[in-house]
Amino acid sequence: MTEDILDPKVDFVFKKVFGSENHKEILIAFLNSVFGNKQSEEEIVDISIDNPDIDKDWKDDKFSRLDIKATTSNDSKVNIEIQLKNQYNMKKRTLYYWSKLYESQMKSGDPYNKLERTVTINILNFTYLKKNNRYHNAYILKEKETNEILTDLEEIHFIELSKLDEDEFESVEDIENKSKEDKLVPWALFLKNPQSEVMKMLEEGMKELKEAAERLEILSHDEETREIYESRQKAIHDQITNIQEAAKEAREEGLEEGEKKGRKKEKIEVAKEMLKDGLSIEKIEKFTNLTKEEIKNLIEK
What we know:
Elements: H1 11-18, H2 24-36, E1 44-49, E2 65-72, E3 77-83, H3 90-103, E4 117-124, E5 136-142, E6 149-160, H4 172-179, H5 185-192, H6 197-203, H7 207-220, H8 223-276, H9 281-288, H10 292-300
Parallel strand pairs: 3-4, 4-6
Antiparallel strand pairs: 1-2, 2-3, 5-6
Helix pairs in contact: 1-7, 2-7, 8-9
């Protein structure tokens, strides 16, 4: 990817490209590729975006998410949240955000039948689910033994871009052939590398994908957008650095604590031998630096 084009995987840029009410067809096409990939019977025909605003300082998680109300071809409603902010405890965070989105539909006195299908989509730029090599996994509530679906009201998707190998797609034909069974592939490849030659050729045959690429191009040459983008990139870099530093300190503290425990264990073993030899508690205390109470506990054991 050249330096001139912004990275669409950055939450701020993704929201600018996909989260515009003036370009709803981009997000509709993307969502249909996600759900179509998982054999959804309903096609999304319209959307409204609950949080289209962009905050320059990004002090709250809500600005890295897209909250969407979608209408399907049979006029049912779907609540959708797209999350791009890579965090630890992704599963727990995802369930938390899903539950908040689900609960937000209800007001005091509302009947439970008002609750509608709620979907969370996590787009990750790293490998999170280690048990399979699929880049797109969707989870629903099922009975453990029979696989009977309890309800379709809860649905959680993980799209792990790192698992999608760009080298498998050397031509437009490769992508088009794969897209017959996996409609999400072109969009996932766009998010990974919108500047690839194959993507540029593919855009000519996909109206919404071409529109997304054109919007990304315009945003990439907008000074204010680039300023916010660079600020966001710095914030992400600082966050990663802080996490890495915290992990390093924790490891070092763990090693130090381990060494302390090791030394303490050695002192206890020495004290036991000294007790066997009949030495006084005072002498053992002076030699090992164990407390009288610790030495007495060894006698009682």
